[in-house]
Design brief:
Strand content: 15-25%
Largest sheet: 5 strands, antiparallel
Distance between the termini: 96 Å
Helix content: 40-55%
Structural class: alpha+beta
Order of helices and strands: HHEEEHEEHHHEEEHEEHHH
Number of strands: 10
Strand order of the largest sheet: 5-4-8-7-6
Length: 293
């Protein structure tokens, strides 16, 4: 105690606690000491003592003589580390909330799955718990086998494959959502013989993006079909047919136009090419062509 409290030997003997440390008066330390002495029961606490600028872990025991025995230790390093971890955890939670991410933690030997509220919301699961097999059952049947295989590869010590997968889930109300899941397995060391400790990850609802991608793909498919139809119509005629976009690039050119363009200007006209570049060697013809278009 003398070393921890930086006191000279004998400086504490014969003096009351309140004399030596008046800063204890009115604190949780004083209340614990008095409670232990009055109620004859053990008291324990960890608190900050401003006079020292330190955190102390204290255990107080009543003794038969009517006094108390105090065991204490400097807990500043432990408490500071706990506060730092708590702060990082809160920052992580805020960042995940802002990004709309959910998280999971899986114990592989028991298949005990821990999820946060955000993940259960994405999966459409009410309540505070989601079983591992129930989570897999929510995955679309067409995607389920692929997800199982990806998880096995990620959690196999001999493979340790990165886990990143987009798949569909069917919520309890029947709605379909697309999710993107990213996970990482933790092992107790390197090599194929080491034990899998956990499988952790995050998940995001990417339904809007996937729907936009599908709409874009469908739109492109319709556009290609329209061009193919137009090409089929224009290729069979002897009329010269061509179309340009606002950058003077050909979007439609039929066979008759290509033939006559090559004959007259000595260069090629093709879909995707620029009329400006095709006629760059003929400035007067280029000016007239631009004027016509």
């Amino acid at each position: 105690a003398e070393r921890l409290l930086e006191r000279e030997p004998g400086d504490l003997i014969g003096r009351t606690l309140w004399e030596v440390y008046p800063g204890l008066i009115g604190t949780s330390f004083e209340r614990a000491y008095l409670e232990a002495a009055r109620e004859r029961r053990t008291e324990s606490l960890t608190a900050f003592y401003p006079d020292h600028g330190r955190w102390y872990e204290v255990h107080v025991y009543p003794v038969n003589t009517g006094g108390i025995t105090i065991y204490f230790r400097d807990a500043t390093e432990r408490v500071t580390a706990e506060q730092r971890i708590a702060k990082l955890a809160e920052e992580r939670r805020l960042a995940m909330d802002a990004a709309g991410l959910g998280s999971w933690h899986l114990k592989p030997h028991t298949n005990e799955l821990t999820t946060d509220r955000r993940l259960r919301d994405i999966f459409g699961v009410p309540g505070d718990h989601l079983e591992y097999e129930a989570a897999l059952a929510i995955i679309h049947p067409a995607d389920r086998a692929r997800v199982r295989a990806a998880v096995r590869a990620a959690t196999d010590p001999s493979e340790r494959a990165p886990y990143s997968d987009e798949h569909r889930v069917i919520r309890s109300d029947g709605t379909l959502r697309w999710v993107h899941a990213v996970g990482r397995a933790t092992f107790d060391g390197d090599g194929p013989e080491h034990e899998l400790l956990s499988f952790d990850g995050i998940i995001a609802d990417v339904t809007d993006r996937k729907l936009n991608e599908v709409a874009l793909e469908e739109g492109e498919a319709r556009l290609r079909a329209a061009y193919q139809l137009l090409e089929g119509i224009t290729e069979g005629t002897h009329e010269l047919i061509a179309a340009l976009d606002h950058d003077f690039r050909y979007t439609v050119v039929n066979a008759a136009y290509r033939r006559d363009f090559r004959r007259v200007f000595g260069t090629e006209a093709a879909v995707g090419t620029s009329m400006l570049e095709a006629l760059a060697h003929l400035p007067e013809d280029l000016e007239n062509a631009v004027g016509l278009w």
